[in-house]
Design brief:
Length: 169
């Protein structure tokens, strides 16, 4: 009998960090936010001195993705069997379960589905160009479409590094 293997969903990229909130792109393409506001009070009152350090906003802001986990360079721990200290990291399974989906990653190919091929071309009022690794994609919108499409595009996409991200409402 063939075994079915579940793909582990892991953090891929930290998109945004602010005190007690982290926006993360996951390996399944989802963009999720973790709000640690409630946990901070528990960390401050708890016995775990390492988690208590994360209650300091400056320390929390040292977050980064390390080996498929959210880690904090501002908190160093000793791990048995590993020489030196390591940054504190949080369990990715718990992190995913406790997060809220706010969007998904969008490829440049998916963006092209927003154009209507049946509409006759008009004089462009808005031109948008997206580039990634030397390849660029250009979109032009006519006067009648421009205001509405401009608002929709700004609402749907934000530019982060070289990635385009679609935000769901």
């Amino acid at each position: 009998m063939e075994r079915i293997r579940r793909q582990l969903i892991r953090p891929k990229k930290l998109l945004e960090i602010e005190p007690y909130k982290a926006v993360i792109l996951w390996s399944n393409g989802e963009i999720r936010v973790n709000d640690f506001s409630q946990e901070v009070q528990e960390w401050e009152a708890g016995a775990n001195k390492y988690l208590a350090k994360l209650a300091v906003p400056k320390v929390f802001m040292t977050a980064f993705i390390k080996e498929n986990a959210l880690a904090f360079s501002g908190v160093k721990i000793k791990v048995p069997g590993i020489p030196g200290t390591q940054p504190l990291d949080l369990d990715p399974d718990v992190l995913y379960k406790d997060s809220k989906k706010i969007g998904r990653s969008v490829s440049p190919e998916e963006i092209s589905t927003f154009t209507n091929p049946r509409r006759k071309p008009e004089k462009p009022a808005i031109e948008l160009t997206f580039s990634k690794k030397g390849k660029s994609i250009q979109f032009s919108f006519g006067d009648s479409e421009a205001p509405e499409l401009g608002r929709k595009i700004r609402a749907l996409f934000i530019q982060m590094g070289n990635e385009l991200i679609k935000i769901e409402n």
